C-alpha cells in the first residue's frame, strides 16, 4: 500500500486545526475549541487536503489526550470568519491514478473525521459559515451541531460533481435526519442546479440542533453547549425510520434519478445504494462502503469531466480568454433598446436591474412602445410583490425605463442593442437609423442568434462599434452570453461589451462572428441529425429517447418545443444556407411551421408523443434507424462540427465550446459540456482522427 | 393644543454589564478583536438578560470612546445599535469626555429621561487602547503651549499623577502602593465571592495564529502582587518618582453598557431597578493635576442633592492612579482602607479602558447596593483628562431603612 499512498500536494493551502482550551460559560467546565483556518480570508475557504487532514488528526490527538487526562469535558469545532469548511481539496484528484490511492485518501478522511463521533466526551460542531461536502461531514460526525443563521452555502454537492459524500455523510445523514431528507440533500439538491440549504431549512430538516444569530454565534453556541453538558438542555433525536419508509424514500430517489439521467452518471445511484444500506449497516460497514464508492467514482471519467466542468464554470467563465483589456471599456450610463417586443422587454428588464441606468425602448408606434414599457413595469411590479424589490427600488427602476417612437431618444446612449426581427436588411436599416442619432463611440449590440454581425455593420460609418451580444432564453435565468467579434469590431467596443456582460452578471465567452455562434450551431446540427432520422422513418419514441444515455436535461423534441418550432426552423434555415452540406432542413418541420402549428407535442403522463394535428402533417420515409444508430449519428455530427468550429477559430479552445454547452444549453457536467464525452466515447478519434482534449484533462489520465 | 405639562422624572439604572477587560497590546486577549464588536456583544447581552424590554422602546443609544477613529468611529452609538440588531428606528450617538465618557453617556441620556424626552436608553463606553493608543491622531493647538493655556505635562496622565504627589506630599508612594495592593486583594476576593462574574459578558476572541478562544474573566488582575514587588517597580514618568505601573491602572481594552429608564416606565415594563439617580455634577480643575477632579465634582453633586459625604454608604471611585484616589479620600476625611470605598477592588487591578470605565463603576455599585440594603446612597466618581472630575450620586432601591 505504501507506494500507492498519495503525498500532500506541495501547493496545498493547508487548513490548520488550531486547538485552544476554553472555560465554558456558566461553570460548565473546560472544553477544547478547534478552529479550522487556512490562513486566508473568506474568498479562499477552508478545504481539506492531505496536510489539512493530518493537522486535524494532530488536533484530535491533543483532544483525546486532554480528555483522557480529565482536562476537558467536551470538544467543539468551528471555522474561520464566514467559513466553516467546504470539503475535500479536489485539486488533488487529477493526480490520483488508481482506485487504491483513491481509497487510501477516502479512508484517511474517515479515520480522522470519525474520531469526532467516537471520543469519550461529547463533540460539538459550531457551523459559523459555509459548510459543504467534507466540511458538513465534519459536523455530521459530531454529537451536536449549531448553525449560524448567517451561514451561506450548506450542503452536500458531491453527487453533482460525480462523487458521493464519502467521509461519512452518506451513512450518517440518513441515520440523523431520515432517508427522505437524506435523499433530498445528498441526491436531489445537487442534481437540481446544485441547490444549497438555507440555515433555517437545514435546522428544520434536523441537520442542526439549534441556530444562533451571527453577531454572537460562537458565544451562544458555547453557552448552549454548556447547557447541554449540564443537562439543562436535552437534544431529542428521532429513532431510525422503518424499513418501509426507508425503502420508499430510496425508491423515490431512484425514480427521480432515472428520470433525470437515464443511467448516464453513476454517482447518484451509488449514493442511493449507500443511503439504502445505511439503515442496517454498522459504522465500519457504512464507511467502508463509502470508501469503495469513492475509489470507483474517483477513477471514473464522469467525475473527471464533472471536475473539469466545475473548473470551467468557476474559473474560465469568470476570466474569458482572448478579451481586450478592461481598461479600454467605456462607461455605460444609458442604454437604448430597439424594439419593444418580448425579447426587448426581457433585455430592458435585465439592463435596468443590473446597471441602474436609464433604458429607452423604441418601436414603430406608440401602442407597441407602451406595451413594451408596460411589460417591463409589470415585471418590476411582480418582483416588488414578491418582496424581491423594495418600494423605493422598484420606483427607481420603473422611472428608469421609458419608451419612444423616435430613435432621437438614443442620442446620449452609450450602448444600443437591437432586438428586432431576425432579418439582415431590417437590422442593417435599424443600425443605420441609430447611427444617425448616437455619438461616434456608442456601441451597437445585436442579439441576433444566427445572422452575420459583420454584414450588419458593413454600411455603417463606424462599423467598428458593432458587437454580437447573444443572450439565451429566458434572459434573466440563463447564465451564458456569447459575445461575437465581427470583422471590424475594435478593442474598445469589444471591451465595453465584455464589461457590460460582466455587469449584467453573465458568463461571457468570446466567439467569432460565425453563423449560430456556438450553442445554436451545435444544437441545430445535433437536432438536424435527430430530425433527419425521424423523417427517414425512425419511430418518434426511438428518436426522442435515443440520446437518453447522455443524461441531457431534456429530450430532442422537448427541446425543439421549448425553443419553438418556428425559431428552430429559422435557425436551421440560416445555418443550412451557410453550411448546406452539414445542416439539413427538415421537410416535416417546414410543413409544421408553414401550417402555423406551434404545439408539437402531446403528453401521456410524463411521456411525450407527437400531437395528432402535427403527426398528420408529417411524411416519413421507410428506412428507420435504431436508437444506437441515431445516437451515433448525432454524436458524430457534433464531433465533426466541433472540430470544424475549432479549425475555423470560432472559439479559442475546446474549453470554450464546453463552457458554452454547460451554460447555454445546460448540458451536464458528467459530459464535460460535450468534447470530453466525445473523446471518451471514441467519437472524436473516429470522426476527426484525434481527441479534443489530451487524456487526463477531463478524463482519467 | 398645548404641550403636555412636564415634570422631572426619576431615572433608574436597569442593568449594567461589561466585557472582561483585557491588557492592551499584541498579546492581550482582544489583540485581534474589534472595539465595536465588544460594544455589540455587551448590548446584545444586556437586552438578552432583560427580555421584558421591547427593543423598539429604546429611545436613544450613546456610546463613548476617547479616540473616535476606525472601529471606534462612525458614530458608534448608531452603528453599534444596528450591528447589535436593534430596530432601525432606534437612534444613536457618540460621546466623548475622555475617561468619563460612559459616565457622561449615562448622565446625558438620564437628563433626557428626566425631562421626558426619553423613556428607555442604552449607554455604553469602549476603549481599545491596543488598537487606539492614547493620543492617537491628536493635534493640540499650538496656542496651548505658546500661551501656557495648559501645562504641557497635562497631556501625559502619569505626569499629572506625579504632580499630585507634589501637591500633597503626605500622600506618599508607600501609601499609594499599599492602596494598590488592597485593590488587587479586594479584586481577588470579589472574584472568589462571585461578585464580578455575573456582569461579565463572555467574548469570542479570535487569534489568527491560535484560533478562536473565549474571554470570560478580566486579564489585568495580578493577585500575586506584594508590597515588595510594588516597591521595586520603575517610575516611568519621572526619575525617582512615585507613580508606577503597579499603583496605576494599566492600558486596557474593554467595553461596558447599561440600560436606563424612567422609573415609571421601568415599572410599567417590569424592568428591574438596580440604582436610582439622585444627582450628578462635573467640575474642572487645573489640567496638570487632573486627578483631583473628583473632589469639586463630588462636592457639587452632594450640594445639589442636599447631601453630605456622611450620607454616602458606598463609594466607587475610579483608580486611574492610587494617588488620585488618596487625594479624594483625604479631602473628605475618609481612611485609605475605608471599607465603603471600592469594596470589590478597582481599576488598578481590573483595568481602565478609558471611556468605558464609568459604567463599570455603576455595575460595581449596583452589586454593592444589592448586598447592602442598609446603605441608602452611593457615588460613582472619576477623574478626567485635561483637568476634570465627574460624579453621580445614586440611591439604593433595595434600601430597607435600617442601619447595618
Describe the protein's topology.
The complex is a heterodimer of chains A (701) and B (404).
Chain A: E1 16-23, E2 30-37, H1 50-68, E3 74-79, E4 83-85, H2 99-113, E5 123-127, E6 130-132, H3 134-141, E7 144-148, E8 154-155, H4 158-161, H5 169-177, H6 179-191, H7 199-205, E9 210-212, H8 217-230, H9 243-261, H10 267-278, H11 283-298, H12 301-316, E10 335-338, H13 342-355, E11 359-362, H14 366-385, H15 391-400, E12 401-404, E13 415-418, H16 424-435, E14 443-446, H17 453-457, E15 466-470, E16 480-485, H18 491-503, E17 507-512, H19 519-535, H20 540-545, H21 556-563, H22 565-578, H23 587-594, E18 601-604, E19 607-610, H24 612-615, H25 627-648, H26 654-664, H27 675-680, H28 683-688
Parallel strand pairs in A: 2-3, 3-5, 4-6, 5-7, 6-8, 7-9, 10-11, 10-13, 11-12, 13-14, 14-15, 16-17
Antiparallel strand pairs in A: 1-2, 15-16, 18-19
Helix pairs in contact in A: 1-2, 2-11, 3-5, 5-6, 5-10, 6-9, 6-10, 9-10, 10-11, 12-26, 13-14, 14-15, 19-22, 19-25, 21-22
Chain B: E1 11-18, E2 22-23, H1 35-48, E3 58-64, H2 76-84, E4 93-95, H3 101-114, E5 120-128, H4 143-146, H5 157-167, H6 173-192, E6 203-207, E7 211-215, H7 227-231, E8 252-262, H8 263-269, E9 275-284, H9 294-305, E10 312-317, H10 322-331, H11 347-350, H12 357-371, E11 377-384, E12 388-395
Parallel strand pairs in B: 3-4, 3-5, 10-11
Antiparallel strand pairs in B: 1-8, 1-9, 2-8, 5-8, 6-7, 9-12, 11-12
Helix pairs in contact in B: 1-2
Give structural attributes:
heterodimer, A: 701 residues, alpha/beta, 2-enoyl-CoA Hydratase, Chain A, domain 1, Rossmann fold, N-(1-d-carboxylethyl)-l-norvaline Dehydrogenase, domain 2, 3 domains, 8-stranded mixed β-sheet, 6-stranded mixed β-sheet, 28 helices, 19 strands, B: 404 residues, alpha+beta, 10-stranded mixed β-sheet, 12 helices, 20% strand
Amino acid at each position: 500500500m505504501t507506494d500507492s499512498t498519495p503525498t500532500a500536494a506541495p501547493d496545498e493551502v493547508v487548513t490548520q486545526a488550531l486547538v485552544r482550551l476554553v472555560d465554558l460559560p456558566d461553570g460548565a467546565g473546560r472544553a477544547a475549541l478547534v478552529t479550522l483556518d487556512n490562513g486566508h480570508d473568506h474568498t479562499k475557504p477552508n478545504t481539506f487536503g492531505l496536510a489539512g487532514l493530518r493537522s486535524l488528526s494532530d488536533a484530535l490527538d491533543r483532544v483525546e489526550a486532554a480528555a483522557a487526562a480529565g482536562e476537558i469535558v467536551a470538544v467543539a469545532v468551528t471555522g474561520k470568519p464566514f467559513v466553516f469548511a467546504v470539503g475535500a481539496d479536489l485539486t488533488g484528484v487529477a493526480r490520483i491514478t488508481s482506485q487504491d490511492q483513491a481509497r487510501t485518501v477516502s479512508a484517511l478522511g474517515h479515520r480522522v473525521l470519525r474520531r469526532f463521533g467516537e471520543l469519550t466526551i461529547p463533540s460539538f460542531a459550531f457551523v459559523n459559515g459555509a459548510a459543504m461536502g467534507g466540511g458538513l461531514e465534519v459536523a455530521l460526525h459530531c454529537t451536536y451541531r449549531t448553525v449560524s443563521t448567517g451561514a451561506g452555502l450548506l450542503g452536500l454537492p458531491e453527487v453533482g460533481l460525480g462523487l458521493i459524500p464519502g467521509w461519512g455523510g452518506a451513512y450518517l445523514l440518513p441515520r440523523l435526519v431520515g432517508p427522505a431528507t437524506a435523499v433530498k440533500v445528498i441526491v436531489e439538491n445537487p442534481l437540481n442546479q446544485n441547490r444549497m440549504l438555507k440555515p433555517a431549512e437545514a435546522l428544520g430538516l434536523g441537520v442542526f440542533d439549534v441556530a444562533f444569530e451571527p453577531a454572537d454565534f460562537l458565544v451562544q453556541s458555547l453557552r448552549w453547549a454548556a447547557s447541554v453538558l449540564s443537562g439543562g438542555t436535552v437534544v431529542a433525536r428521532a429513532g431510525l425510520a422503518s424499513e418501509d419508509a426507508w425503502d420508499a424514500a430510496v425508491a423515490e430517489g431512484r425514480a427521480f434519478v432515472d428520470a433525470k439521467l437515464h443511467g448516464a452518471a453513476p454517482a447518484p445511484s451509488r449514493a442511493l445504494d449507500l443511503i439504502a444500506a445505511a439503515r442496517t449497516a454498522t459504522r465500519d460497514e457504512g464507511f467502508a462502503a463509502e470508501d469503495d464508492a469513492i475509489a470507483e467514482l474517483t477513477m471514473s471519467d464522469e467525475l473527471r469531466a464533472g471536475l473539469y466542468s466545475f473548473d470551467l464554470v468557476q474559473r474560465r467563465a469568470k476570466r474569458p480568454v482572448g478579451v481586450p483589456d478592461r481598461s479600454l471599456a467605456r462607461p455605460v450610463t444609458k442604454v437604448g433598446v430597439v424594439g419593444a417586443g418580448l425579447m426587448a422587454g426581457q433585455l430592458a428588464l435585465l439592463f435596468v436591474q443590473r446597471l441602474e441606468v436609464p433604458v429607452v425602448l423604441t418601436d414603430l408606434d406608440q401602442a407597441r412602445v407602451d406595451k413594451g414599457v408596460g411589460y417591463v413595469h409589470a415585471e418590476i411590479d411582480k418582483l416588488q410583490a414578491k418582496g424581491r424589490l423594495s418600494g423605493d427600488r422598484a420606483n427607481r427602476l420603473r422611472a428608469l425605463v421609458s419608451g419612444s417612437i423616435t430613435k432621437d431618444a438614443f442620442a446620449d446612449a452609450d450602448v444600443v442593442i437591437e432586438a428586432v426581427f431576425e432579418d439582415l436588411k431590417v437590422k442593417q436599416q435599424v443600425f443605420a437609423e441609430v447611427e444617425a442619432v448616437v455619438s461616434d463611440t456608442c456601441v451597437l449590440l445585436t442579439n441576433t442568434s444566427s445572422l452575420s454581425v459583420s454584414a450588419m455593420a458593413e454600411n455603417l460609418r463606424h462599423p467598428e462599434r458593432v458587437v454580437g451580444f447573444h443572450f439565451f432564453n429566458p434572459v434573466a435565468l440563463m447564465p451564458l452570453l456569447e459575445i461575437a467579434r465581427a470583422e471590424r469590431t475594435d478593442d474598445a467596443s469589444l471591451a465595453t461589451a465584455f464589461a457590460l456582460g460582466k455587469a449584467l452578471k453573465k458568463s461571457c465567452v468570446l466567439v467569432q462572428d460565425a453563423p449560430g455562434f456556438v450553442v445554436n450551431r451545435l444544437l441545430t446540427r445535433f437536432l438536424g441529425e435527430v430530425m433527419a432520422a425521424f423523417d427517414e422513418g425512425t419511430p418518434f419514441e426511438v428518436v426522442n429517447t435515443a440520446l437518453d444515455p447522455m443524461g441531457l436535461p431534456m429530450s430532442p423534441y422537448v427541446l425543439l418545443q421549448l425553443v419553438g418550432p418556428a425559431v428552430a426552423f429559422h435557425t436551421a434555415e440560416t445555418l443550412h444556407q451557410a453550411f448546406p452540406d452539414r445542416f439539413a432542413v427538415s421537410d416535416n418541420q417546414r410543413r409544421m411551421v408553414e401550417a402555423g402549428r406551434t404545439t408539437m407535442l402531446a403528453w401521456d403522463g410524463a411521456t411525450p408523443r407527437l400531437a395528432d394535428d402535427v403527426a398528420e402533417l408529417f411524411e416519413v420515409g421507410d428506412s428507420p434507424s435504431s436508437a444506437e444508430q441515431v445516437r451515433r449519428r448525432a454524436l458524430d455530427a457534433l464531433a465533426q462540427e466541433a472540430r470544424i468550429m475549432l479549425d475555423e477559430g470560432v472559439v479559442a479552445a475546446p474549453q470554450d465550446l464546453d463552457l458554452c454547452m454547460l451554460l447555454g444549453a445546460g448540458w451536464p457536467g458528467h459530459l464535460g459540456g460535450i468534447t470530453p464525452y466525445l473523446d471518451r466515447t471514441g467519437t472524436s478519434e473516429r470522426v476527426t482522427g484525434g481527441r479534443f482534449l489530451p487524456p487526463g484533462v477531463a478524463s482519467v489520465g | 393644543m398645548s404641550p403636555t405639562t412636564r415634570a422631572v422624572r426619576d431615572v433608574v439604572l436597569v442593568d449594567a454589564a461589561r466585557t472582561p477587560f483585557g491588557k492592551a497590546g499584541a498579546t492581550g486577549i482582544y489583540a485581534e478583536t474589534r472595539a465595536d464588536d465588544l460594544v455589540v456583544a455587551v448590548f446584545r447581552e444586556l437586552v438578552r438578560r432583560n427580555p421584558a424590554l421591547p427593543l423598539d422602546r429604546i429611545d436613544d443609544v450613546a456610546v463613548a470612546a476617547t479616540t473616535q477613529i476606525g472601529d471606534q468611529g462612525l458614530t458608534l452609538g448608531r452603528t453599534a445599535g444596528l450591528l447589535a440588531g436593534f430596530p432601525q428606528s432606534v437612534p444613536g450617538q457618540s460621546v466623548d469626555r475622555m475617561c468619563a465618557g460612559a459616565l457622561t453617556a449615562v448622565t446625558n441620556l438620564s437628563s433626557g429621561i428626566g425631562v421626558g424626552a426619553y423613556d428607555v436608553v442604552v449607554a455604553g463606553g469602549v476603549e481599545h487602547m491596543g488598537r487606539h493608543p492614547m493620543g492617537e491622531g491628536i493635534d493640540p493647538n499650538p496656542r496651548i503651549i505658546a500661551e501656557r493655556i495648559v501645562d504641557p505635562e497635562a497631556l501625559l496622565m502619569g505626569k499629572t499623577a506625579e504632580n499630585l504627589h507634589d501637591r500633597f506630599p503626605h500622600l506618599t508612594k508607600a501609601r499609594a502602593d499599599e492602596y494598590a495592593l488592597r485593590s488587587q486583594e479586594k479584586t481577588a476576593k470579589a472574584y472568589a465571592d462571585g461578585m464580578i462574574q455575573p456582569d461579565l459578558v463572555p467574548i469570542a476572541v479570535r487569534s489568527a495564529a491560535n484560533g478562536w478562544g473565549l474571554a470570560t474573566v478580566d486579564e489585568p488582575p495580578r493577585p500575586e502582587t506584594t508590597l515588595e514587588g510594588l516597591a521595586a517597580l520603575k517610575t516611568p514618568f519621572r526619575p525617582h518618582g512615585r507613580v508606577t505601573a503597579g499603583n496605576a491602572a494599566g492600558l486596557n481594552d474593554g467595553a461596558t453598557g447599561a440600560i436606563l429608564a424612567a422609573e415609571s416606565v421601568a415599572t410599567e415594563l417590569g424592568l428591574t431597578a438596580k440604582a436610582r439617580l439622585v444627582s450628578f455634577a462635573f467640575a474642572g480643575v487645573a489640567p496638570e493635576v487632573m486627578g483631583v477632579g473628583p473632589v469639586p465634582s463630588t462636592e457639587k453633586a452632594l450640594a445639589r442633592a442636599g447631601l453630605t459625604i456622611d450620607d454616602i454608604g458606598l463609594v466607587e471611585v475610579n483608580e486611574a492612579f492610587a494617588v488620585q484616589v488618596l487625594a479624594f479620600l483625604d479631602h473628605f476625611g475618609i481612611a485609605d482602607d475605608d471599607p465603603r470605598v471600592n469594596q470589590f477592588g478597582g481599576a488598578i487591578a481590573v483595568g481602565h479602558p478609558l471611556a468605558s470605565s464609568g459604567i463599570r463603576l455603576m455595575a460595581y455599585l449596583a452589586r454593592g447596593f444589592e448586598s447592602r440594603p442598609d446603605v441608602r446612597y452611593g457615588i460613582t466618581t472619576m477623574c478626567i483628562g485635561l483637568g476634570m472630575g465627574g460624579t453621580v450620586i445614586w440611591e439604593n432601591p433595595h434600601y430597607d431603612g435600617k442601619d447595618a
